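Supplementary notes for students who missed Thursday's class. We covered one full example, reproduced here. Read the sequence, then the structure, then the short commentary at the end.
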Amino acid sequence: MMAINQQTFRDAMACVGAAVNIITTDGDAGQAGFTASAVCSVTDSPPTLLVCLNRAASVWPVFNQNRALCVNTLAAGQESLSNLFGGKTAMAERFAAAQWQTGETGCPRLEGALASFDCHITQVVSVGTHDILFCEIQAIVHHPAPEGLVWFNRHYHTLMRPAC
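Structure (token representation):
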């Protein structure tokens, strides 16, 4: 069997579309946030999702200590915010670029997100370079927007909500 190299894996994964999310935390270790597409549902009983986070990321120690996070799923038009949280911009500048509320766990909840999932991290599993954070949802805020934002083929794309 042929070994799969990193570039082959990344190129193939670029063909898998995913929602764009800003993951935030706040607590004793401070406030932090990053952009992620590696988010998915796990189960609805109890309501749980997972988030993948590289252990080499500058935000990893903050999330690891706070043990709470909010997954903010972005709407179309929030691409610049995604880029800001995906770069090397200082945390204060990232958070100053949008309006936030405080969620049930104390984590920042993005105003205007399609949905925000306020969570406690209940389990962490390490795989390769990343930690998989299993997150039990404490509260959900849903703001249906006419258009969603997805990442596919290394570009942003808009998904239109069908008319009812």
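Commentary. DSSP finds four helices and twelve strands in the chain. The CA atoms of residues 134 and 140 lie 16 Å apart. If anything here is unclear, bring it to office hours.
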